[in-house]
Here is the input.
Amino acid sequence: MKRFVIGTLVPLLAILSLTLPANAGLMWCKTDPVITLNNTIVDITTSIPLEYVPLVNGPVTYEVRTPKDTERHLILNDAGFGSGSEFVFLDGAGTILDNEIPTKILVHVPIDTSRLAPKETVPVELMIIPANGAPLVVMGTSTSTTASLVVIGN
Here is the structure.
């Protein structure tokens, strides 16, 4: 029985290792502020590879765009990648229909580019999790990462 389990497990692990994304081996550092949009909690997780954290030279900036009649609040902020986080709530395009709030979130992670190789970019993973909706994951760069989604207000 033990040989059967090992004989089955080894090929399965080999197949899984071939299907994992190339950046799966990276260690990521995260910042995790929380906002509300019309009383719906929205968790925003911004991640960069651990090796780039020492290059962050300012606060992570978040621009949250929603229709002008949206109630918007920063509930929890954290230390960012050592320099804090700044939030700006702006009026965006669209209107709220049936409690559906069109939302656009732009993130910028300031990096000391003088310490990067020519044409090197810093990857950013942005995960947005509304309390009453499905998570959205978007990949971008430290220069600009943008996610668009609909948040259901309460």
